[in-house]
C-alpha cells in the first residue's frame, strides 16, 4: 500500500488568487461571458491566464508593471522559447494576457495607450492597396502587421533596401512558424515591394529578391459533408426566427459562396424579377449568379 506525504497541485483559482491578476479575475471571466464566449472557452482562458500570471510573478512583475510583463513574455515567445512543463508560459497564454489587458483598459482600470503614429509610407500603402487592388480589410490588416515589422527592420527609406536584407527579414521572421505563416509573410512583403516599385521608390528587381516558400503536402480527398448532413442542418433552421440562418446555410451549400461574400450581401443584391443575385467577390469583383429554388 503506498505510503508517504503527497502535495496536491495548486488549482487554477488558487494560482490566480496568488498572482498579479487576483483582484480582477472574476470581472474578466464575466466580461468574457458577456461577449458570448462559451463556458468551456471561459474555463480555458482562466487556465491560460493562470499560466501567464505564474510566469509574470516568477519573473518579478507586479500588477503595476503588467504591460511590461506582457511585452517581455511576447518577446520571449517570439525568440523561440519552448514550454518546460505543463502550465509553463506558451503562445496561447501570452495571447490571453493581451485579452486580459484589453479588458482592464475597457473597464478603465488601465489607461488606454494612445494609438501609435503610422509611418507615412504605410498610410500611403493602405490607400494604394484599397483603391488599386480592392483588398478586404481582414487581408489588409494581416498585410499591414507584416509590413510594420518589415519597415521596423529595414527602415523607412526604401532606397536603402537590398536583396540581401529583404531575404534576411523573411528568414528571420520565418523561424518557428508554420509554412502557411511563412507564405503569408512573403505575400505581404511582396505586395509592399510592388507598391514601392509602382511609386518609383525602389527598383523593380527587388520584388524578385523574395525567396519562395516550400509548401509540400500529401494530397488528400477534400473534407465535405454528406447530403444527408446538409439537409439535416437546413431542416434544423425551422420557424420564422431562423429564416436568416436558413438563408445563410442555403447560400453556402447551394451556391458555394464564401462566408465573406454572404456577409456583404444586402437586399439590393437580390433581383427577383431577373432571378439572379449579385455577389461582391475578392478584389471588388462583381458576379451575377442565378437564384436557386
TrEMBL record:
GO biological process: DNA integration; DNA recombination
Top-level taxon of the source organism: Bacteria
Domain Tyr recombinase: 220-293
GO MF annotations in UniProt: DNA binding
Pfam families, sorted: Phage_integrase
Segments forming domain Core-binding (CB): 116-197
InterPro entries: CB (IPR044068), DNA_brk_join_enz (IPR011010), Integrase-like_cat_sf (IPR013762), Integrase_catalytic (IPR002104)
Keyword DNA-binding part of the UniProt annotation: yes
Keywords: DNA integration, DNA recombination, DNA-binding
PROSITE patterns referenced in this protein's UniProt entry, alphabetically: CB, TYR_RECOMBINASE
UniProt protein name: Integrase
Organism: Acetobacter malorum
Amino acid at each position: 500500500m503506498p505510503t508517504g506525504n503527497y502535495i496536491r497541485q495548486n488549482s487554477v483559482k488558487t494560482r490566480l488568487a496568488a498572482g498579479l491578476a487576483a483582484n480582477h479575475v472574476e470581472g474578466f471571466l464575466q466580461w468574457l461571458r458577456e461577449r458570448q464566449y462559451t463556458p468551456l472557452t471561459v474555463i480555458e482562458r482562466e487556465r491560460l491566464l493562470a499560466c501567464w500570471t505564474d510566469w509574470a510573478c516568477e519573473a518579478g512583475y507586479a500588477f503595476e508593471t503588467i504591460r511590461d510583463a506582457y511585452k517581455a513574455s511576447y518577446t520571449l515567445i517570439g525568440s523561440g522559447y519552448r514550454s518546460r512543463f505543463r502550465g509553463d508560459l506558451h503562445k496561447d497564454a501570452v495571447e490571453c494576457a493581451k485579452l486580459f489587458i484589453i479588458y482592464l483598459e475597457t473597464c478603465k482600470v488601465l489607461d488606454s495607450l494612445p494609438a501609435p503614429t503610422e509611418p507615412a509610407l504605410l498610410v500611403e500603402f493602405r490607400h494604394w492597396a484599397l483603391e488599386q487592388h480592392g483588398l478586404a480589410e481582414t487581408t489588409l490588416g494581416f498585410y499591414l502587421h507584416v509590413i510594420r515589422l518589415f519597415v521596423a527592420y529595414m527602415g523607412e527609406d526604401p532606397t536603402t533596401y537590398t536583396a540581401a536584407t529583404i531575404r534576411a527579414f523573411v528568414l528571420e521572421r520565418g523561424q518557428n512558424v508554420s509554412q502557411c505563416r511563412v507564405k503569408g509573410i512573403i505575400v505581404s512583403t511582396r505586395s509592399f515591394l510592388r507598391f514601392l516599385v509602382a511609386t518609383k521608390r525602389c527598383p523593380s528587381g527587388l520584388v524578385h529578391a523574395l525567396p519562395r516558400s516550400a509548401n509540400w503536402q500529401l494530397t488528400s480527398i477534400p473534407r465535405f459533408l454528406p447530403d444527408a448532413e446538409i439537409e439535416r442542418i437546413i431542416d434544423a433552421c425551422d420557424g420564422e426566427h431562423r429564416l436568416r440562418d436558413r438563408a445563410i446555410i442555403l447560400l453556402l451549400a447551394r451556391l458555394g459562396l464564401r462566408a465573406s461574400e454572404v456577409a456583404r450581401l444586402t437586399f439590393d443584391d437580390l433581383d427577383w424579377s431577373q432571378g439572379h443575385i449579385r455577389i461582391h467577390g475578392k478584389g471588388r469583383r462583381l458576379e451575377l449568379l442565378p437564384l436557386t429554388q
